[in-house]
Amino acid sequence: MIVPVILAGGSGTRLWPLSRGLFPKQLINLIDDHSMLQNTLLRPFGIPDMAPPVVICNEDHRFMAAEQMRRVNCNGTILLEPVGRNTAPAIAAAALQVALEHPQATLLILPADHVMEDISAFHGAVAAGEAHAAAGSLVTFGIVPTGPETGYGYIKKGNPVSLGMEKDATGCTIKRFVEKPDLETAKGYVDSGQYLWNSGMFMFRADTVLEELTRHAPDMVTACRAALEKGGEDLDFFRLDGGAFAQSPSDSIDYAVMEKTDHGVVIPLDAGWNDVGSWDALWHTGEKDENHNVLKGDVLVSDVKNCYLNAESRLIAAVGLEDHVVVETKDAVLVAPRDRVQEVKKLVEALKKKRRPEVTTHREVFRPWGSYETIDLGLRFQVKRITVKPGAKLSLQKHFHRAEHWTVVSGTAIITKGEEEILLRENESVYIPLGFVHRMENPGKIPLELIEVQSGSYLGEDDIVRFDDIYGREKKRG
Length: 478
Fold this sequence. Notes:
Layout: E1 2-7, H1 36-42, E2 54-58, H2 62-71, E3 77-81, H3 87-99, E4 106-111, E5 115-116, H4 119-134, E6 138-143, E7 154-160, E8 172-178, H5 183-192, E9 195-205, H6 206-216, H7 218-230, E10 232-234, E11 237-239, H8 242-246, H9 253-258, E12 264-269, E13 273-274, H10 279-285, E14 294-296, E15 299-302, E16 308-311, E17 316-319, E18 324-328, E19 333-337, H11 344-353, E20 364-367, E21 370-378, E22 381-388, E23 396-398, E24 402-410, E25 413-417, E26 420-424, E27 429-432, E28 438-441, E29 448-456, E30 464-468, E31 476-477
Parallel strand pairs: 1-2, 1-4, 2-3, 3-11, 6-12, 14-16, 15-17, 16-18
Antiparallel strand pairs: 4-9, 5-13, 6-9, 7-8, 7-9, 8-12, 10-11, 18-19, 20-21, 21-22, 22-29, 23-30, 24-27, 24-29, 25-26, 25-28, 30-31
Helix pairs in contact: 3-6, 3-7, 6-7
């Protein structure tokens, strides 16, 4: 049995302004009509003996991850990381959970933000990896390089590993892992034919990796085991205990195990792989026009070459650009030369220091019941467009600093206002005075669309006292 373990806890700051703290790149449709997470979930389909996945994500993304899994008909476990501790503790926690019932199950570790063009080649590499994992090896997949790349780590191949099979599964010992090189060093690696890119994908039996982790990182295993034992089910999620998990050392699986084990094997993979770590990477993977431009959304160009232009909400018009990236969202625009897009991280750090909301959220914010989008914001007022999914309801709550006026645009709403219960149809409205306990619910079969006008001295999202919530969120915030 193969259990995909999907690492979906990253922030993806290099793809700002599309990727934000509460809506990172793995949840965005960057390549096609599916998000990066959904494509990762779908990628193993067709591999024999494939079990439902374990998805590891953080608290803020849990409902979006669950919704995206539902939309591709994927059932599985969502393991909630209370705090980021890098890949090794995440993998340890997943291995411990799987090992409770299936200690000899093979784990297929997949980051949720990779692109893979040749799925059949990927499936072939997984079949080879499964054979080596069954023999007790800790397998990593090394990408056959297409050129010198300074943004990736490298793996130097050793001797071929024989499994004594009639048709041996491809695999080599690992001579060493090397950090991201400079350009000249990278050229030497590629020219030698002995090096592969480090993909961050792995395959090993649950009991094997736990044995190696116990040998090389015992404190990590102890902390993760305690986090699992003290954790528990929460709706459709399994929540690791925060205090115990925080005691784990923070380390990558490469440093914690793969660079120390005597049982490492690397499988070469040539499948059109890309980790989509920058806007330039998206230009490389995107479909290009006759001038080698990747154009997404409402874009008009004249004499533009080798550019990536992405319009989310309005027209981008460009003249005479070459080798540039332009990304537009409803609240931010990024313009940068393609060869300097790695510096976007510096912009994100500057925005964090200024406490700008553009680091964390888009104007459209997703909640387990639906979403809301800020349309206008001024002194003592805010206007939002609210969408509530069929059958969903907001928490029973009140505010100390604002009143709200709701107008139904489409659908039907059941409104709790103090002791009253009100049915609202299209073009009908209700006023919720400051301090009134209230709730909104969609009893219908279609999405409920409303316009909300807030007024008051403080309009922050933390001005909420919750009395009841079907999604298990804390009763009081702020």
